[in-house]
Amino acid sequence: MDISVIPNIKHTNSNNFFLLAGPCAIEGEEMALRIAEKIISVTDKLEIPLIFKGSFKKANRSRVDSFSGIGDEKALKILQKVSKTFGVPTVTDIHESGDAYLAAQFVDVLQIPAFLVRQTDLVVAAAKTGKVVNLKKGQFMSAESMKHAVNKVIDSGNEKVMITDRGTMFGYQDMIVDFRGIPTMKQFGTTILDVTHSLQQPNQTSGVTGGRPDMIETIARAGIATGVDGLFLETHFDPANAKSDGANMLHLDHLEKLLTNLVAIRKTINTL
Predict the structure, then answer these.
(1) Which of 2, 47, 87, 161 is most exposed, with the fewest beta carbons within 10 Å of its own?
(2) Where does the DAHP synthetase I/KDSA domain lie (predicted)?
(3) What's the predicted TM-score (pTM) here?
(4) Which band of pLDDT confidence, cut at 50, 70 and 90, is reported for residue 64?
(5) Phi-psi region of 8 (alpha: psi -120 to 50; beta: other; left: phi over 0)
């Protein structure tokens, strides 16, 4: 898929990787605009195509008292405001077929969570909106098996589909990235590496997912070196107090240095 089909996406001729980045969940308007402004400042400087990310609700929580959102339409309107304020496309994840039509009225890309990527009704509903569909590879799935999820989108009349690797379960409380899967999935379409979710440590006894943010640059560098088309990462100005996935998010203050290093690697790869 040519990412230039995504509305308002910039820097498509820079020969850089593209980026899906933002907070895990939309916690409020001020925080979303603050994070978006910083990310956009950095990506414009480095000429990185950007899609701003934010979950309008969190359905996959370990505990019933975990934060799930500020209200569906309220959060979606904030994503829409980010798009209109800064002129950038947005992406959010959906969990039920009914979410597809609702979210499609506010965002440019619909994302299917990893644990739901085999849900045919959900994938087809997303595809039929005509929006770009980003399929997260299931933590339990091989890279090869993602071709079937891709085909569900295409067979529904929508060729605007991307695949995102977000790691594979390794035991009960750790994830690994099998970088052999990147060239495999690139045979099926545009391929992204979800850096921060690949560093999650799920199934903690506390019911709160852990993570290894100290390894973000290591995984991201490897992704660029193996030829991913895009990177996905979650970032926040105060990860310790974020309402979701703070344990594996990148601190916003570290974003520019990370992306600067990754752009340099990409330029080196492009000359080989």
Answers:
(1) 2
(2) 8-267
(3) 0.94
(4) confident
(5) left
